[in-house]
Automatic annotation (TrEMBL):
This is NAD-dependent protein deacylase sirtuin-5, mitochondrial. GO terms for molecular function: histone deacetylase activity, NAD-dependent; NAD+ binding; protein-malonyllysine demalonylase activity; protein-succinyllysine desuccinylase activity; zinc ion binding. It comes from Sinocyclocheilus grahami. Binds 1 zinc ion per subunit. It catalyses: N(6)-succinyl-L-lysyl-[protein] + NAD(+) + H2O = 2''-O-succinyl-ADP-D-ribose + nicotinamide + L-lysyl-[protein]; N(6)-glutaryl-L-lysyl-[protein] + NAD(+) + H2O = 2''-O-glutaryl-ADP-D-ribose + nicotinamide + L-lysyl-[protein]; N(6)-malonyl-L-lysyl-[protein] + NAD(+) + H2O = 2''-O-malonyl-ADP-D-ribose + nicotinamide + L-lysyl-[protein]. Residues 19-272 form the Deacetylase sirtuin-type domain. It is found in: Cytoplasm, Cytosol; Mitochondrion; Nucleus. The active site is at H144 (proton acceptor). It holds the Pfam family SIR2. The keyword Metal-binding applies. Its EC number is 2.3.1.-. GO terms for cellular component: cytosol; mitochondrion; nucleus.
Length: 272
């Protein structure tokens, strides 16, 4: 029944302090939710914050002496693949101790229940932590990739990779303390492709600064947004493009958009 889902999203409302326009209210949201046949949920770092996932953003957001934008670039990987892999190995290992929080679980429950009613939910996330998957969500687009996928620099193969450590040389490496020494692992001992004798150097399958998003994923996301009749924006500041345009694009079609965030964002007053 719609009341069950309104209760569930009331939990999200309390957790994220729904920052809607003054004319909006929970009753209006429940009515829109009850009518929706295809719900698009756009999520960002805020939805994983309760799980203790480090963001490496803002003051204090450092790994050793670097911020993410110092290491998450093709140039940094080309210059020092050992250092970049230490950073991502650390992030992978940290994520093993993190669990989906009530927001991930509520979204997954919503998807499961609505599918039994002939309705659908799609999650479009900027997160690379796979917590939506671990919570049980099935229909997820990870537009920035995943910590637990690799891409071969030689053959281009993308594969899931949950090994711990991802290669023997990285075991025990990645200490974030500023005084930690770089491992300086020889490139031949870094993660390598095991497909058809390729043995090419692997990189994290994430979208780095200066790179474009996968065109196939973007096309699929555009198709989902074109057919959705309700859009939820959860835990994202809506300032990183192209994701920043997803909700305004939906609102431009006259589709209801509800924002769940801890504070007002640049998008708060844009949604109709």
């Amino acid at each position: 029944p719609p009341q069950i889902w309104c209760f569930m999203f009331s939990y999200l409302w309390i957790a994220f302090q729904w920052m809607a326009r003054p004319s909006s209210n929970l009753t209006e949201f429940c009515e829109d939710f009850a009518k929706a046949k295809h719900v698009a949920i756009i999520t960002g770092a805020g939805v994983s914050a309760e799980s203790g996932v480090p963001t490496f953003r803002g003051q204090g957001g450092y790994w050793r002496k670097w911020q993410a934008q110092d290491l998450a670039t093709p140039e940094a990987f080309s210059r020092d693949p050992s250092l970049v892999w230490e950073f991502y190995h650390y992030r992978r290992e940290v994520m093993r101790s993190k669990m989906p929080n009530p927001a991930h679980l509520a979204i997954a429950k919503c998807e499961s229940r609505l599918s039994k009613q002939g309705r659908s939910v799609v999650i479009i996330t900027q997160n690379i932590d796979e917590l939506h998957h671990r919570a049980g969500s099935k229909h997820v687009y990870e537009i920035h990739g995943s910590l637990f996928k690799t891409r071969c620099m030689s053959c281009g193969e993308v594969k899931a990779n949950h090994k711990s450590p991802i290669c023997p040389a990285l075991e025990g490496k990645g200490e974030p303390d500023p005084s930690a020494k770089d491992a300086r692992i020889p490139v031949q001992h870094l993660p390598r492709c095991d497909g058809s004798g390729c043995n090419g150097l692997l990189r994290p399958h994430v979208v780095w600064f200066g790179e474009t998003l996968d065109s196939d994923i973007l096309t699929a996301v555009e198709q989902e947004l074109e057919k959705c009749d309700l859009c939820l924006v959860v835990g994202t500041s809506s300032v990183v493009y192209p994701a920043a345009m997803f909700a305004p694009q939906v609102a431009g079609r006259g589709v209801p958009v509800a924002e769940f965030n801890m504070e007002c964002t640049p998008a708060t007053m844009r949604f109709k």
